[in-house]
Specification:
This protein is mainly α. 72% of the residues lie in helices and 0% in strands.
């Protein structure tokens, strides 16, 4: 949303225009057009990055309703829908955008991203194949890596992940994805290194911490890693390690970890309590 301090400026501008001669020039009419005011204030960019997802969707829906021929507004709506977790609704919009005269290559990449979110990997791959090889961006290679993963083309996946990491200053998420790829292949040590690297870039990325615990547990190491964590995170990670131990037949270790998770959590840890009760019930049975 616009910062409050910009509102007096807008009000003054409108007041000044209202005091003009009644026979306004076309330039004045254009300045008064609400969509042009939005462009001048970069509100569309703000809505895409700073606004709450559903708020951005509502804004772009109104804007598209007023000017349905503007591809930039339809692009904003499609991107906002994806951001709001409504990729199913975004896909037909992106399809229309990439087929329109105002389409750019980034649209096809964003379309592929939406397709991946809906599980349409084949069409996502087809769209990425249509992107010129000269367009080398972080987002393009991140998606290429995910598609290669889905096809179990491990060498290609590693190549694309490595390329994507080199094209961003904030690689934590892609490093986490790469680590999960290695984890799914059974390359536990390599996965552990990638999760640690992701956490170094973003110490608050809990998904990477949880995956790191899984990678260590797969190697028989159930001790929590020496990374920054809150009390709640520590309890959740102990719970993850406990379940991994139980799945691998280490029930005594799992029971001890569950008890520690329950004791560590600052509130009632229902999931850990249920898991411990189920384990004890199974032993008694």
């Amino acid at each position: 949303m616009l910062r409050p301090r910009t509102l007096p400026v807008v009000a003054l501008a409108l007041a000044a225009l209202a005091g003009c001669d009644a026979a306004r020039s076309p330039d004045v009419d254009r300045a008064l057009d609400p969509m042009n005011v939005i462009d001048e204030s970069n509100l569309g960019d703000i809505m895409l990055t700073a606004a709450a997802p559903e708020e951005a969707v509502a804004y772009f829906q109104r804007a598209v309703g007023e000017q349905p021929d503007r591809v930039d507004l339809r692009r904003g709506l499609a991107a906002s829908l994806v951001r709001a977790g409504r990729a199913d609704e975004a896909v037909p919009l992106w399809r229309e955008i990439v087929d329109s005269d105002g389409a750019i290559e980034q649209d096809r990449i964003d379309y592929a991203g939406a397709l991946i979110r809906t599980g349409d990997w084949d069409e996502a791959e087809r769209q990425l194949d249509l992107v010129p090889p000269t367009l080398e961006t972080y987002e393009r290679y991140r998606l290429e890596a995910m598609v290669a993963d889905s096809n179990q083309e491990w060498d290609r996946a590693d190549h694309f992940y490595e390329t994507a990491v080199g094209l961003t200053t904030r690689p934590a998420n892609v490093l986490n994805n790469w680590g999960y790829s290695r984890l799914s292949r059974g390359e536990y040590r390599g996965a552990e290194e990638l999760f640690l690297e992701a956490i170094r870039y973003d110490p608050d990325l809990f998904t990477a911490k949880n995956n790191l615990v899984l990678a260590r547990a797969a190697q028989g190491n159930y001790q929590l890693p020496l990374v920054r964590m809150t009390e709640i995170e520590r309890a959740q990670l102990l719970h993850t390690a406990a379940l991994a131990a139980i799945r691998q037949g280490e029930t005594d270790i799992g029971r001890a970890l569950l008890a520690e998770a329950i004791e560590t959590h600052p509130q009632h840890f229902e999931a850990a309590v249920r898991a411990l009760d189920a384990l004890d019930t199974e032993v008694r049975g």
